[in-house]
Design brief:
By secondary structure, the protein is of the alpha/beta class. The protein has one domain: HUPs (Rossmann fold), CATH 3.40.50.620.
Length: about 200
């Protein structure tokens, strides 16, 4: 049975911080593949510079083309309903023969996981790889509580933290500044070719 990781996000756009976190999870957990799961942008989170779902998916597909360990799932991006992580992971689990995938996330989100939709079931049924993100830290007391209260399978990653944000990338594009150190080359080429985030 394959060892899979699932890494969800808006990926607007997919940047080197995402890439670093996904690669760290693959290496530390000896994963056979990492499934990139672009989310549907919620109406209350959209801004005028948000890229369309098709563009965000295209950029993720380009990254997966260049990084063979990556696969792409469209489970959430074109859905009409609110995407709940628990339901998505259950569907992927069914499609992959009932395996228990690793859900890759930021350590800051891990601490709030019990309050998500069916959060307690999430913690009991799936495994979690938590990485540091810019400005975040790991509260070991709360991690230990999740392990004790729910038998949660949690791996705390030793990833390199890259101080990159999608907002910063969009701001740079609007100012006509270079983003080549912030995103994979294929993503930069796509953004340039399609004129994304300029307004």
């Amino acid at each position: 049975m394959k060892r899979r990781g699932i890494f969800g996000g808006t990926f607007d756009p997919f940047h080197n911080g995402h890439l670093s976190l996904a690669k760290a999870a693959a290496e530390e957990l000896d994963l056979d593949e990492v499934i990139l799961l672009p989310n549907r942008v919620q109406p209350f989170k959209t801004d005028r510079s948000a890229a369309a779902a098709g563009d965000r998916l295209a950029m993720v597909n380009l990254v997966a083309r260049d990084e063979k360990i990556f696969k792409v799932s469209t489970e959430e991006i074109f859905g009409d309903e609110i995407s709940y992580t628990y339901k998505t992971l259950c569907r992927i689990r069914e499609k992959t023969g009932g395996e228990r995938p690793w859900f890759i996330m930021g350590a800051d989100s891990l601490i709030t996981l019990r309050f998500w939709y069916k959060g307690e079931d999430l913690l009991r049924e799936f495994s979690f790889a938590a990485g540091l993100r810019p400005g975040s830290s790991i509260d070991m007391k709360k991690v230990d509580e999740l392990r004790r209260d729910y038998g949660a399978d949690i791996h705390l990653m030793e990833n390199t933290v890259l101080d990159i944000s999608s907002t910063e990338i969009k701001d740079r594009i609007r100012r006509g500044e270079d983003i080549s150190t912030l995103v994979p080359a294929c993503v930069k080429e796509y953004i340039d070719e399609h004129g994304l985030y300029r307004q």
